[in-house]
From TrEMBL, chain A:
Domain of life according to the entry: Bacteria
Similarity comment text for this entry: Belongs to the NrfD family.
Cell location: Cell membrane
Mode of membrane association: Multi-pass membrane protein
Keywords: Cell membrane, Membrane, Transmembrane, Transmembrane helix
Bilayer-spanning residue ranges: 37-56, 81-101, 113-139, 159-181, 221-240, 260-280, 301-322, 342-360, 367-392, 412-436
Record's keyword annotation contains Repeat: no
GO CC field: plasma membrane
Pfam family, one: NrfD
UniProt protein name: Quinol:cytochrome c oxidoreductase quinone-binding subunit 1
Automatic annotation (TrEMBL), chain B:
Lineage, broadest ranks: Bacteria, Pseudomonadati, Bacteroidota, Cytophagia, Cytophagales
InterPro entries documented for this protein: 4Fe4S_Fe-S-bd (IPR017896), Asp_de-COase-like_dom_sf (IPR009010), TAT_var_transloc_signal_dom (IPR030948)
Protein name: Quinol:cytochrome c oxidoreductase iron-sulfur protein
NCBIfam families assigned: MoCo_extend_TAT
Organism: Pontibacter mucosus
Pfam families: Fer4_11 (PF13247), Fer4_2 (PF12797)
């Protein structure tokens, strides 16, 4: 009984009814785990086990288990940190900024994207703690009143700003995500048959009844949180970039970093959302909710941010040359042609060249191509951080201390392990939480008044006929 | 009235109830007056209330768990009777002397609570008043070596001293054949006298002096002594394979003399010119103004050519560039009486020629003090070779080894070992069962020198004393005391030595003796040591070294010594070679051209086959400056002894390169090299060798300096709208105000010879952990102070970065001591999230280890990369067992109690020896005065043998540092990376080269 607008692309395909939406989304929560999910979880758990082992080695024996040295004091740890924080940008961006801009297509992907944000930030937050020499004293970076006398944190330190930026972003994202989940939890609660599920979801839904008052408050809080979260999206990576930008190391000391990092974060965040969405819609049969339109829209964001990042890379080179500072010039020449040239060119290929393929509509709308390119972008953005951190540090001012960095198995383990942790959390989320915001998707099911235009709909979407074969009335 | 007044103890007694009667005889009545609170029933019924039960439970749980929390008890036992001189927390200083293989140092030993913890130069000494060698600094750890023998051995089994003495005495009583005493050079007059007396009982006795890196040829050419070289008087110095700043003869006194002619003063600019012809790039060659690589086979021809040119003939027959040689000759001839030629050759023939050159140049009496020759090397190769033959012939009845290990380090080691089989009585005084001691019947371990009395005469008229600064740690016995016991004398060596000194101390002997012991030196011109011309000599014809495709030399490493004496010293093993910057092991140093020709890359393992067909496998190190067609391998490695766990498995022994040529040991021969497929990484602390056209270290020519001293240093200027400005002129930061002191340091690159004594001294002073080869390979050495060594790059276009990474084939070398610059606008201080590193009110950049959480942001943001991170726990960690100062109870005695041993996960770095600064200030305060300039010195400055480092208060206009800074500003003074405006408190002075 879905109705199709003659001018607007439908946001949900397949002629879904309100009930269909509830059924489709609740299916994986209520049904037995499907095989594909179980298999994926098993793989993720192996990753988690690697993480636990690597973290144990790091904590028990010391940071020496990693490949760092006196010249390169940060490498994979902070690379991973920035990478994960970057990935954690998309969710809030989609939910908050797109909400403010009234982009309705966001509704079917925001839930999963926000979950991804939360989990990515959890993974990211592991590193600032793990990379400390004495992680058991990590709480010292918080401005806590203490009995140590006048000891206080150093507000000049960008690392301290990071602490505030990340923790604020995490709390706001978490609350935003959770508020959105409440009506859906209530739906599941109401449908639940088992006593445990009923009680659990009852607790999670905070006694939501669906009254008009509840909805009104829900809308208001969402808007307020969106308003709060929007500047945070910009601020988090700006502040993360300050870690580098405020230093004196050539290749780090760059004023372009804040916008460049934010663009890069959105770039990598969208790539990760795409990677995950393409899998999720397949695994949970949600093709009608996460449609090609979504994928194409996100690809457009990727091409925009990818180009911004590309311009930033070029600008850095120009400024290094223009500055006349020999250390800066060498830092950039060393990036491209020094011993880590392969990292630099991997970054350039993955981040600047591959996303340009999205100028072609065919590629933009191809699931396979999108998936592959999204993986490329994920890899490229990891290399971007590696290039910034390691190749700047390994050859800084005094040639006497120049050194190379090579990761140990534990470095790899911690990184791969966080991916395991991320997917474990994400898969658990997929199974036990509604991956699509039912309440909001229902709100966009009808994109226009209910007038039948069967023929025009068919002609308008002739080109998409195969893909959107269910665009017609399902009487 | 006998009515007694009755005082009741209480109402109960007055009432005198039956209840009271019952308990009256009990002093402690059972009932407790708690009836009122809960009602009588519960208390008297004996039942416990729930609340009480819980209280009890809680209390006992808390008590039990608290008890289990208790840390293991470690007792600090106070002195029952306080020793007279020991004040806990206050250091005592004793004068003593370090001598090992020619390396002589008069020293002061710092003891805390009766433990020696640091060695410093003895300013009373005329020879070595300024600094020490790295070996002298490191020798301290030998005292606390856990692998030293703790008791004497008979046939490898533990024994009692009485038993050892009885057996040795009885076997000596009926010894047949020759009795030989083999030692390395002994410069102790009393010991020498004692050995001679000991030997006089035997019909046939010989004291054979065997030096691993021998100067036998030099001695033979100069009547058994080393000429009294005085580099300080030389305008022109020509060194031929003589590493006189690093290993040759007496490096510490020589370095002091040498640098006197190199310190330049703008008022009267003068400096010596130093030519060096050599095969390996030695420490000395690195400092030379002109350095020419030559093959060992070209050495004799060069000396001959020089000789003939200096004596009026023509310089011909040498492969050295004729034009260059002509310049050398011109310089030498223009500076008659002010020139000095030294050669490291061990060929008596070559040394005769060198002597003739010096005579022709009028060096004797000017640059060679004929009245005061050096005694620091007395090894006689011919005598040792003869002894080996005698042993093999079976004519030796007894042999003693003192500081000599020929089974390991003699070129004919196999012959020594086979000869020893035929000797009836073999006694070793070694401190552990090393290669020679293994074959000995008796091992009677000698004391460490810090446990012994001894006297020294390194140069005629310069006497010094060593005194015990700790009572013997193990049941060892000083060699001299053993000899006295075996000669049935009842005196001990201390008395013996005192008696011997009666001839040199005039006036009241006791007073004179006390003063000599107190000062550590007696330099009144009198001499005690009897040295005679060598009895056995080799032919003084010049030996022809056959040129071969690959000529190899075996050389002594500056920090390790020649004979492997320091193999088990982890401090010295980890001290980088001053030139190659390699630690932990030896390698085949080869020139780039040879590596290219052979297709060898750094770290590729090569099979080296010696002339005697033995072979070893070592990795290759591409060494710029190594003469083409030659390779070099360091002495002192390849030890496979359980009693040397630190050295086990490091490198290979290359003594077989040394060959016996017509009665002389020459440290060179032809070898064959084969590439293997293996690689073995060399642990270098610096892997990038050129300066990349940056102005981090500055040098200029002497000619330019004379022209205008204001133009020798490049100063970075920042472009502003008002024209170029000093970087400090535009600053975002407020400057600190220093009200009291402002500590600073000046490092004169012209004086620094790069020896590494400062690094070693810093390591000892500041409890710096040893991390081992694997961690050095990970680039994680912990040294707070390093010496950056840069080679000049090969010719390249400006900005050709790929090209400028490669050092020239014969590079000029510059050393730059690098440590925390104590920036006034420190980049590290702003980035620490917990403010663990901050600025002191006296300009010191401080680390609060306790506060550090280990983010390493400070290290990343340090432009000088001088911060060091504790990647692991280096103390009490079996993984770092070789790190003796922190991993065994004995080794820990060397730790400086004034400096924290850092834990895992914290950052550390140079503190400007803040413990010394505080101590100096406290002492001044106690005496109600300001600290005097020179009273507070950092460990590095104190140990520098050339006074390259000056530390002081920049607030005090009268201090030395202030005066240097005032004079050098705008001339040679510069800050490294001044353009960053971090405003370091360390200033460097531009190096000046006297180019020909």
């Amino acid at each position: 009984m879905q109705h199709v607008s003659p001018i607007r692309e439908p946001l949900v395909t397949g002629g879904k009814t309100y009930h269909d939406i509830t059924e489709d989304v609740c299916r994986q929560v209520e049904a037995k785990p499907n095989v594909r999910w179980a298999a994926a979880l098993a793989v993720a758990l192996v990753g988690l086990a690697i993480f636990i082992y690597s973290v144990y080695r790091t904590l028990w024996y010391g940071i020496g288990e990693w490949g760092l040295n006196k010249t390169v004091g940060w490498a994979w740890d902070i690379t991973n940190f920035v990478w994960w924080v970057g990935i954690g940008h998309a969710g809030t961006l989609i939910s908050a900024i797109l909400l403010l801009f009234r982009q309705k297509w966001r509704t079917s992907i925001n839930r999963a994207a926000e979950a991804m944000t939360i989990f990515a930030v959890i993974c990211a937050a592991m590193f600032p703690v793990l990379h400390m020499g004495r992680p058991w004293l990590a709480y010292w970076v918080l401005p806590l009143p203490n009995t140590f006398g006048s000891l206080w944190v150093n507000f000049n330190s960008p690392l301290l700003w990071d602490v505030f930026a990340i923790s604020t972003y995490f709390s706001v994202s978490l609350v935003f995500w959770y508020i959105g989940l409440i009506p859906d939890f209530a739906t599941i609660r109401d449908r639940a048959t088992g006593p445990i599920a009923r009680r659990a979801y009852a607790l999670l839904s905070f006694g939501w009844t669906g009254s008009a008052k509840h909805w009104s408050r829900y809308e208001t809080v969402s808007l307020i949180l969106a308003g709060l979260a929007t500047p945070l999206v910009l601020s988090v990576h700006t502040i993360v970039s300050f870690d580098f930008a405020t230093s004196v190391i050539p290749g780090w000391h760059t004023t372009i970093f804040p916008p460049y990092f934010v663009a890069g974060a959105i770039f990598s965040g969208f790539a990760m959302v795409l990677t995950l969405m393409i899998i999720t819609r397949k695994v949970f049969y949600l093709e009608d909710y996460i449609t090609l339109e979504h994928i194409e829209s996100m690809n457009k964001v990727i091409i925009l941010t990818g180009s911004i990042v590309g311009i930033a890379y070029t600008t850095e080179f120009f400024i290094a040359w223009y500055s006349g500072v020999e250390y800066e010039q060498y830092a950039f020449i060393n990036r491209a042609f020094g011993p880590y040239w392969w990292a630099y060119w991997s970054m350039m290929t993955c981040n600047v060249i591959t996303p340009q393929l999205f100028w072609f509509r065919k590629i933009r709308r191809s699931l396979t191509a999108t998936f592959i390119i999204s993986i490329f972008v994920n890899i490229g953005m990891w290399f971007e951080r590696f290039v910034i951190i390691v190749t700047s540090l390994h050859r800084d001012y005094l040639p006497s201390s120049w050194a190379m960095f090579s990761p140990t198995i534990i470095d790899v383990g911690v990184y791969v392990g966080t991916i395991g942790l991320f997917f474990t959390l994400f898969l658990l989320f997929c199974k036990f939480f509604p991956v699509i915001n039912m309440a909001e998707v229902k709100a966009i099911l009808k994109s226009s008044s209910e007038v039948k235009h069967p023929k025009s709909a068919a002609t308008m979407h002739a080109t998409d006929k195969d893909l959107n074969s269910n665009t017609h009335h399902n009487e | 009235m006998q009515d007694r007044i009755k005082y009741w103890k209480g109402i109960e007694e007055l009432e005198n109830t039956p209840e009271f009667e019952k308990h009256a005889h009990n002093e402690f009545p059972e009932f407790l007056p708690i009836n009122g609170a809960e009602g009588g029933e519960s208390a008297s019924s004996g039942k416990t209330h729930r609340r009480d039960f819980l209280k009890l439970l809680g209390f006992s749980m808390a008590a039990v768990s608290l008890a289990s929390c208790e840390a293991p008890v470690r007792k600090a036992i106070p002195y029952l009777n306080k020793p007279v001189d020991v004040e806990p927390g206050v250091a005592n200083w004793y004068a003593s002397t370090f001598y090992q293989g020619g390396d002589y140092n008069s020293i002061l030993v710092k003891t805390r609570e009766a433990r020696p913890i640091k060695i410093e130069p003895n300013p009373s000494s005329g020879l070595t008043p300024l600094g020490t060698s790295p070996k002298a600094q490191g020798s301290l750890l030998g005292l606390y070596d856990n692998n030293r023998l703790r008791f004497p051995l008979i046939a490898g089994k533990e024994a009692k001293w009485e038993e050892v003495d009885n057996q040795i005495k009885s076997r000596l009583a009926n010894v047949s054949g020759k009795v030989a005493f083999v030692s390395s050079t002994i410069i102790s007059p009393s010991t020498k006298k004692l050995i001679d007396e000991f030997g006089s009982r035997f019909g046939n006795f010989e004291h054979v002096t065997y030096d691993v890196n021998s100067a036998s040829g030099l001695l033979q050419a100069n009547g058994g002594v080393i000429p009294g070289y005085d580099f300080s008087k030389a305008n022109i110095i020509v060194g031929i394979n003589a590493d006189f700043l690093g290993t040759w003869v007496a490096p510490v006194p020589f370095a002091k003399q040498y640098i006197e002619t190199r310190k330049i003063n703008p008022d009267n600019p003068a400096m010596s010119r130093h030519y060096q012809f050599e095969t390996i790039l030695s420490l000395t060659g690195s400092n030379a103004d002109v350095r020419v690589p030559i093959k060992p086979s070209e050495e004799a021809a060069l000396v001959s050519a020089l000789h003939s040119a200096v004596t009026g003939g023509s310089a011909s027959g040498t492969a050295v560039d004729a034009k260059l040689l002509a310049t050398v000759v011109k310089d030498l001839q223009a500076n008659r009486g002010k020139a000095l030629v030294v050669s490291g050759s061990n060929d008596p023939g070559v040394q005769e020629l060198v002597k003739a050159i010096n005579t022709a140049l009028g060096a004797e009496g000017s640059t060679i003090d004929t009245a005061a020759p050096y005694y620091v090397k007395q090894g006689n190769d011919a005598a040792m070779l003869r002894l080996i033959e005698e042993m093999n012939a079976g004519s030796v009845g007894a042999v003693f080894f003192y500081n000599a290990n020929p089974v390991y380090n003699h070129p004919l080691a196999a012959r020594v070992a086979s000869g020893l089989q035929k000797v009836g009585l073999k006694v070793s005084f070694a401190d552990r069962v090393e290669e020679t001691a293994k074959l000995a019947d008796f091992v009677t371990p000698d004391h460490h020198y810090l446990e012994s009395w001894n006297d020294f005469e390194p140069k005629r008229g310069f006497l010094s004393i060593s005194q015990p600064v700790i009572s013997p740690i193990f049941t060892t016995r000083q060699m001299q005391d053993s000899l006295l016991v075996w000669s049935n004398q009842s005196t001990d060596f201390y008395e013996y030595m005192r008696n011997n000194w009666r001839t040199v101390i005039s006036g009241n002997f006791n007073e004179g003796w006390e003063k000599a012991v107190h000062d550590g030196v007696l330099e009144n011109g009198t001499s005690l040591l009897k040295v005679s011309a060598p009895a056995s000599t080799a032919s003084s014809a010049i030996r022809k070294i056959q040129p071969s495709a690959i000529e190899a030399v075996v050389y002594e490493k500056v920090s390790m010594g020649a004979g492997g004496e320091n193999s088990n010293n982890p401090w010295l093993q980890e001290l980088p070679d001053p030139v190659s910057k390699a630690t932990w092991g030896n390698y085949v140093a080869m020139p780039r051209q040879m590596a290219v020709d052979m297709g060898v890359k750094q770290d590729d393992v090569l099979k080296v086959t010696f002339a005697n067909n033995e072979s070893i496998e070592l990795p290759a190190l591409i060494q710029p400056g190594q003469a083409n067609g030659t390779v070099a391998i360091a002495m002192g490695f390849g030890r496979d002894l359980d009693v040397m766990p630190v050295a086990k498995g490091l490198g290979a022994s290359a003594y077989s390169i040394a060959t016996v040529n017509d009665g002389a040991v020459l440290y060179t021969s032809g070898v064959k090299l084969e590439k293997t497929n293996a690689t073995s990484p060399i642990a270098q602390t610096q892997t990038h060798h050129t300066i990349m056209d940056r102005i981090v270290v500055q040098e200029n020519s002497f000619a330019k300096y004379k022209e205008n001293p204001k133009e020798v240093t490049k100063y970075v200027r920042i472009a502003t709208h008002e024209g170029p400005a000093k970087p400090a002129a535009i600053s975002l930061w407020d400057d600190y105000e220093y009200k009291n002191h402002h500590w600073g340091m000046v490092i004169d690159l012209n004086s620094c010879i790069g020896c590494g004594a400062c690094t070693m001294s810093c390591n000892v002073e500041n409890n710096i952990p040893v991390v081992g080869k694997a961690e050095v390979l990970m680039r994680r050495e912990m040294h707070w102070m390093r010496i950056d060594r840069y080679y000049s790059a090969k010719e390249h276009e400006p900005k050709d970065y790929a090209e400028m990474e490669h050092p020239a084939d014969n590079p000029t070398v510059i050393f730059q001591p690098m440590l925390c610059q104590h920036c006034n606008h420190a980049p590290c201080e702003t980035v620490c999230p917990v403010a663990a590193t901050m600025h002191s009110s006296e300009g010191i950049n401080q680390m609060a280890y306790n506060r550090c959480v280990g983010t390493r942001y400070c290290a990343n943001n340090c432009p000088y990369k001088v911060r060091r991170f504790n990647w692991f726990a280096y103390a009490n960690n079996d993984k770092f067992g070789f790190n003796e100062p922190m991993n065994n109870d004995l080794g820990k005695m060397v730790l400086n109690p004034d400096v924290t041993v850092r834990g895992r996960g914290v950052m550390e770095k140079c503190s400007f020896c803040v413990q010394r600064v505080q101590l100096g200030k406290l002492e001044a305060k106690r005496e109600n005065r300001r600290p005097k300039d020179g009273e507070i010195v950092t460990a590095c400055a104190q140990s520098c043998p050339t006074e390259a480092i000056v530390f002081g208060d920049m607030k005090d206009p009268e201090s030395r540092i202030s005066k240097i800074l005032a004079r050098q500003q705008g001339e040679r003074a510069f800050h490294v990376l001044e353009e960053l405006n971090v405003q370091p408190n360390i200033t460097y002075l531009t190096k000046i080269r006297n180019l020909a």
